[in-house]
Amino acid sequence: MDELKFPESFAWGAATAAYQIEGGWDTDGKGLNVWDTFTHQGGDRVLKNHTGDVACGSYTLWEEDLKCIKQLGLTHYRFSLSWSRLLPDGTTGFINQKGVEYYNKLIDSLLAMNVTPLVTLYHFDMPQALEDQGGWSSEKTADVFEQYAKFCFSTFGDRVKLWITVNEPAMVAKLGYEQAIFAPGKKETGFGAYRSAHNMIKAHAKAWHMYNTFFKEKQKGLVSIALDSDWAEPLDPNSDGDKEACDRYQQFRLNWFANPIFIDGDYPAVMKSEISRNSKEEGLMTSRLPEFTDEEKKIIKGTADFFCLNYYTSRNVRPLSTKPSGPSYNSDTGAEGIKDPNWPEAGVEWLAVVPWGLRKLLAYIKNTFGDPDIYITENGFAQSDPPVLQDVQRWGYFEETLTEVLKAIKQDGVKLKGYFVWSLLDNFEWNSGYNVRFGLFHVDFNQPNLPRTPYYSAIEYAKVVKENGLISK
Ligand code: NOJ
Fold first, then answer.
1. How far is ligand 1, taken at its centre, from the CA of residue 200, in Å?
2. Taking the domains of the chain in order of start, what are their residue ranges?
3. How many CA atoms lie within 13 A of 76 on its CB side?
4. How many whole angstroms from 226 Cα to the centroid of ligand 1?
5. Ligand 1: distance of its center to the CA of 366 in Å?
């Protein structure tokens, strides 16, 4: 059944992130990061005050993770490096050799199993020492990140050929620096998200150039950034107001980062005009959205070797019904996303299951950002606690999604190179702690040895990987 097959050498993967799985928060010289601090502050920042102190214990149980990867037959594994495990204060002034050894073991073992690593440099866990100096609010962090990236390329780049600089900068910016929902818990409404995003874009561009100039020729790898996006549809397709709101919703999320990096080094026009107009009305002399200089635009433009998309859900969009008081990212966007009541929910309130939204988003990316090679670096469905091992319905969501992905490849001509399930394991799901379970493998957090057990979805996913295609019924 050829029509169910994926292209040859399609990358089949699963993804994790350091803070969400490793534990070992103060082991072997690891420095503190913002999530250590944030979770240790308690106060219900995270459901039931869960922390990542132990998580899946992957710092010691990494071989158990390898067994899961093997059982799935994955061709690729996406994980992130803990910045403060490698560089405890975030700078190359002191290198924690134990951290280097840990990732060396992991990378070497993956390669020995014929699994290609896709490595993220920063997945939400800024070293606390850098946060104390401003974190992403400070432009200096972009320079420190560049040095961290250089260190990682020179230490691991002989073996790692696929790199992601920053994971989901929009989430870090909005939730971490504007709404205080994520670490570092800053609430700089109307400013924080834009400023931190600005510095993350610069950090990404510097890291890409560092690789391109000093490593690429020898190491022959690729560098990108992982961007998250919903698919957005106008609530009423015949309403101009809804159509405009829908466009803003998209521009303020995906294009915020993808325009500068993939198109012209600059923010989307609608972001510039809306934020500037609102800033003027607020009596400010300059826009709350920082500007890139012409020189910076040239540096930022074209700094991704492929497109990494994290997709989970879709929204129907209309203009904001009530404008929030005071300046904010939300009021600048002036749009709100609504879940269609017919869309099923997967384990967590925000995750409406909309497989066709992914197909549309992939086509949008193809048409808007120069038909790049695309990897879906995250896609997944959760179960809430207590989960069932026979997650038949959840596997159904994966199958529907992969069917849409196939259509994107075969009917829409999207150059899709790979698909990564979020996540290999149940893990620390940020504010939801361990109550929202995204794993292909169940982790029993109540047992000291944190046993991993495959869900039905894992067994079925392994078949798809093996077939390099969907199984006909
Ligand atoms: C995106 C993030 O990158 C990941 O850390 C998170 O667990 C998943 N979404 C699910 O919310």
1. 18
2. 2-467
3. 24
4. 11
5. 23
Tokens found for residue 377? 């670096």
Q: What is the pTM of this model?
A: 0.98
Per-10-residue mean pLDDT, the chain, length 473: 92 99 98 98 96 98 99 99 99 98 99 99 99 98 99 99 99 98 97 98 99 98 99 98 98 98 98 98 98 98 99 98 91 98 98 98 98 99 97 98 98 98 98 98 98 98 98 85
Atom 5 of ligand 1: nearest residue by CA position: 17
Which two three-digit tokens encode residue 314? Answer: 């879709």
Nearest by Cα to 82 from 109, 63, 64, 55? 55
Q: CB under 8 Å to 468, separation ≥6 — which residues?
A: 5, 6, 8, 10, 12
92 and 451 Cβ atoms separated by less than 8 Å: no
Residue 193 β-bridge partners: none
Q: Which atom of ligand 1 is nearest to the CA of 382?
A: 10
CB 343 within 8 A of CB 275: no
Which residues participate in catalysis according to the annotation?
A: 168, 378
What is the fold of 2-467?
A: TIM Barrel (3.20.20)
Tokens encoding 66: 């390898």
Enter the tokens of residue 431: 């504010």
Measure the CA–CA gap between 428 and 20, rounded to whole angstroms: 5
Pocket of ligand 1 (CB under 6 A): 17, 20, 167-168, 310, 378, 422, 429, 438
- Name the one residue in this structure whose structure tokens are 């992601």: 164
